[in-house]
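Saturday, quiet lab. Running sequence design on the structure tokens for the scaffold JK sent over.
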């Protein structure tokens, strides 16, 4: 192969070879690329470095993914520091990442469970959904901190003249809306993983039912935590119609997720039986 290749082509190739082996396609982007490279023999003559050969990776701005590229201990240290970001919004998104990841893990384990060969494709589909949600939430970890920084930048704008004050006020309101929309997106995205956790608690590998339960706990916490950030940021927004609408929608999502979590935990606890 000469030149660069689109990311989608590599991911599609990885999924194709997994399906040929009747294995779950619900694995990470990194793993799909690795499978594509090995299966297509792209590294037989010279090393194939995805960072240098995939178009999207060449164009990526790593500064936009500062948090998710940290090691776990670095992320924890940064959170614990006196810096106000990352804060509850980014943490809520990351808790959602963990919840979706656990649900996906159970789906993958179930897909590859000995004696469950007939169900591999169904579990593969659940795992693929989980991977999509996990990846979307990973992007929102940094997006929430970026939204907070936009508010800080808006407040730092000059306000010496009437024109500057007007521009500053407009910038603050725009940044505030953005800082409301990001955690609301976290709510919507994380909530989508609860159905996977419930399915895995119900039909998944019984040896991993507790993992599905912990996943549900994380998903619930992500939604509730994100809604807290929606509400606190809403206090600084002057668009009352926008606020009324998003708070109503947020409350509906929160109530539904809490009810779903209760149902998942009932299933989990019945299966654990102790």
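Result came back. Writing it out in full:
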């Amino acid at each position: 192969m000469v030149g660069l290749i689109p990311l989608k082509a590599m991911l599609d190739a990885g999924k194709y070879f997994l399906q040929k082996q009747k294995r779950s396609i619900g694995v990470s982007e990194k793993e799909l690329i690795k499978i594509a490279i090995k299966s297509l023999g792209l590294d037989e003559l010279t090393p194939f470095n995805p960072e240098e050969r995939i178009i999207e990776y060449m164009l990526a701005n790593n500064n936009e993914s500062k948090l998710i590229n940290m090691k776990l201990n670095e992320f924890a240290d940064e959170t614990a520091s006196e810096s106000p970001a990352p804060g509850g919004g980014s943490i809520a998104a990351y808790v959602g990442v963990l919840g979706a990841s656990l649900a996906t893990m159970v789906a993958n384990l179930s897909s590859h469970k000995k004696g469950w060969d007939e169900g591999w494709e169904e579990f593969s589909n659940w795992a693929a959904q989980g991977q999509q949600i996990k990846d979307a939430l990973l992007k929102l970890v940094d997006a929430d901190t970026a939204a907070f920084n936009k508010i800080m930048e808006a407040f730092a704008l000059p306000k010496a003249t009437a024109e500057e004050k007007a521009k500053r006020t407009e910038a603050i309101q725009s940044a505030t809306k953005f800082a409301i929309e990001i955690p609301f997106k976290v709510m919507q995205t994380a909530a989508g993983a609860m159905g996977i956790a419930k399915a895995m608690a119900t039909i998944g590998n019984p040896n991993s039912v507790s993992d599905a339960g912990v996943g549900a706990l994380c998903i619930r916490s992500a939604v509730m935590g994100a809604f807290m950030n929606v509400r606190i940021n809403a206090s600084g927004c002057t668009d009352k119609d926008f606020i009324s609408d998003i708070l109503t929608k947020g409350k509906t999502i929160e109530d539904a997720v809490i009810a779903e979590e209760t149902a998942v935990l009932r299933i989990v606890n019945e299966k654990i039986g102790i």
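Notes for JK: Residues 120-155 form the longest helix (36 residues). The chain is about 75% helix and 0% strand. Ask whether to fix the surface positions before the next round.
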